[in-house]
Every structure is written in structure tokens, then in C-alpha cells.
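Quick one, C-alpha cells below. Sequence please?
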């Protein structure tokens, strides 16, 4: 009994290094939020920032600019958090260290359904985008997992990545085949496809919140069982985990988060991959800590990428999807070259 009590206390004890990482991450997040509110086509000073946030009676131009940027910043933080958690769930479900919604083709599936909706159903609102994108993300995820599970050995990390890459290439071809003969569809779809948080507003945020909360709840509930799954299917089953049900449940959370973010901001890639890899290196493999920290790091990476895009594209802006691809693609190449494609 004494040993059991000590073990339970150790399990409940939060590692000291996690607290340090959390504090540093919150400081970085605060800096990113301030930068997002201050920098853009017009740079505002600290006084204007404070007036815009805490003094609604002040109606200066700088304070008004800050207020206009609040919704975009909140939307950016939510998208980054959603993509970060989605990446953590995808990597854990597939036991693949380079799994990511964009690499597994989920983003492309969402994009295909959105372009079909624009072309054949004349959709044009975020509320319509979100349901089509979710349907496309779910169907693509099921298809990729099905293809990756065929043959001997089941769904191995390498097979899933190959299935995702092949599926993404095929769906991208379908997207282009639908768009090219229709210039009006191409104009409407092109801006969304690049990936941008510039259209983020309070209406988008209100649409996003239910999906974000549902996905976060699924991730938190799945974390202990996913830790057991990391030991292997046989060991997890021996501990009472229903591996098939767990994978379906956790994958649903990842697809919900990724699909909703993709519907509202476009297919922004590499956030889930980058944020989760950084966090695993810092806090270890325990998903009870990886999931919340992936949310924080995803929000930080996407927000700083948005700020960099605004600064690089002055007086306009460089879309955040371009910035994350520019940063993420070389890192993915390095990971692929160095990784031995082993399971997590």
C-alpha cells in the first residue's frame, strides 16, 4: 500500500522542468501577442497599445488600429493551438514522429471539399466552409488510414506517410482539375488556399470555439490512454486500452481541430509538426504535458509567422501559409534525412 501511494504521488507530481517551460512559453506568447497588435502596415507604440487595450474612451488612430487587430490575434492564437494539438494527436495515433495533418493529406481533403462546394454548391460563407472542410478531412483521414493499414504489419509509420503523400498528390490534382476551367472559382479559392489569418473576425471565432473546445476535450481525455499506446498495441491492450476505439476517438479530435482551422484559415501546413517536435524535445513524451504545450507552441509559431509575414510584405502582407511553409519545409527535410522512421 505504501509503494502504491508513493507511485500515485509521483504520477500526480508535475515535473519541475515543465513549470519552467510553461513560464517561458507564456512569456513568449505574451511577446507574440504584443507584436501581433503592434506591427503591421502601420506600427503602433506602447502607449497606443495600452490605450487600445485598456482605455476604450481613447479614440486615437493608433488605439483604433490595435482594437481592429485584436480579433485577428485571437483567431491566430486559436488556429495555432488547434493545429498544434492536432499534430500531437496525429503523431500519437499513428506512432509516427513526422505525422502532421498536412503530411497525411487531411488538409488537402478539406481543400477538395471546399473547392467542390464553391464550384457546384455556390457556397461563400465561413459557416458553409467549415462543414464541408470537416467532411473532407474526415473522409480523407479514413481513406489514408485504410490504405496505410493494408498488407502485412498494419498501419506502420512509413506506410501512413506514403499513403498520405500519395493521397495528397491525387487530391491536389483533382482540385486543380476543377479550378482551372473556372476562373471565377479560382479567384475565390486562391486566397483561401494559400492559408491566411487575415480574414479572422469575431464571427469566425464564434464559429471556431465549439470545435476547438470539443477537440481539446477529446485530446485531454485521450492523453493517458495514448501514453499507454506508445508502449505498443499489445502492451496497451494488456493495460485495458481498447486500441481501435482509442485511435478512432483521438483521430476524431485531431480531424475536428485541423478541419475547423483549415475551413476558416485555409490549409496552413507544418504547425502541428513543428510545435509537437519542439515540445517533445523539451518536456518529453508524456502527452499530459505534450498536448497543452503543443497548443501553446502552435499558437506562438503561427502568431510570430503572421507577424513576420506582415513585416516582410509591407505595405501589404505575405500570407502566413507561405511563411510557415518556408520555415517548415527545410525542417521536414532535415527530420526525414535524420529520422530512422521508428515509432514513437
Amino acid at each position: 500500500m505504501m509503494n502504491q501511494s508513493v507511485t500515485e504521488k509521483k504520477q500526480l507530481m508535475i515535473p519541475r522542468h515543465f513549470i519552467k517551460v510553461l513560464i517561458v512559453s507564456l512569456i513568449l506568447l505574451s511577446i507574440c501577442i504584443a507584436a501581433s497588435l503592434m506591427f503591421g502596415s502601420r506600427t503602433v507604440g506602447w502607449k497606443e497599445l495600452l490605450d487600445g487595450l485598456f482605455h476604450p474612451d481613447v479614440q486615437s488612430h493608433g488605439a483604433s488600429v490595435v482594437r481592429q487587430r485584436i480579433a485577428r490575434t485571437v483567431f491566430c492564437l486559436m488556429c495555432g493551438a488547434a493545429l498544434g494539438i492536432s499534430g500531437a494527436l496525429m503523431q500519437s495515433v499513428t506512432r509516427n514522429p513526422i505525422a502532421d495533418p498536412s503530411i497525411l493529406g487531411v488538409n488537402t481533403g478539406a481543400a477538395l471539399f471546399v473547392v467542390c462546394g464553391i464550384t457546384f454548391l455556390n457556397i461563400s460563407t465561413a459557416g458553409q466552409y467549415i462543414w464541408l472542410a470537416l467532411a473532407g478531412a474526415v473522409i480523407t483521414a479514413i481513406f489514408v488510414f485504410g490504405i496505410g493499414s493494408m498488407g502485412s504489419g498494419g498501419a506502420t509509420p512509413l506506410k501512413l506517410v506514403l499513403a498520405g503523400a500519395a493521397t495528397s498528390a491525387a487530391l491536389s490534382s483533382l482540385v486543380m482539375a476543377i479550378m482551372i476551367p473556372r476562373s471565377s472559382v479560382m479567384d475565390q479559392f486562391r486566397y483561401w488556399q494559400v492559408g491566411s489569418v487575415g480574414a479572422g473576425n469575431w464571427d469566425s471565432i464564434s464559429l471556431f470555439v465549439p470545435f476547438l473546445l470539443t477537440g481539446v476535450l477529446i485530446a485531454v481525455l485521450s492523453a493517458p490512454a495514448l501514453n499507454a499506446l506508445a508502449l505498443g498495441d499489445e502492451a496497451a491492450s494488456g493495460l485495458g486500452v481498447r486500441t481501435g476505439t482509442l485511435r478512432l476517438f483521438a483521430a476524431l479530435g485531431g480531424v475536428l481541430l485541423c478541419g475547423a482551422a483549415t475551413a476558416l484559415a485555409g490549409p496552413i501546413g507544418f504547425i502541428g509538426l513543428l510545435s509537437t517536435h519542439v515540445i517533445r524535445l523539451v518536456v518529453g513524451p508524456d502527452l499530459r504535458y505534450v498536448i497543452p504545450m503543443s497548443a501553446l507552441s502552435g499558437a506562438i509559431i503561427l502568431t510570430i509567422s503572421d507577424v513576420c509575414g506582415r513585416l516582410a510584405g509591407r505595405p501589404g502582407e505575405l500570407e502566413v501559409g507561405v511563411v510557415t511553409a518556408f520555415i517548415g519545409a527545410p525542417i521536414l527535410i532535415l527530420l526525414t534525412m535524420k529520422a530512422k522512421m521508428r515509432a514513437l
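Residues 1-10 have pLDDT under 50 and may be disordered. The chain has one domain: 73-338.
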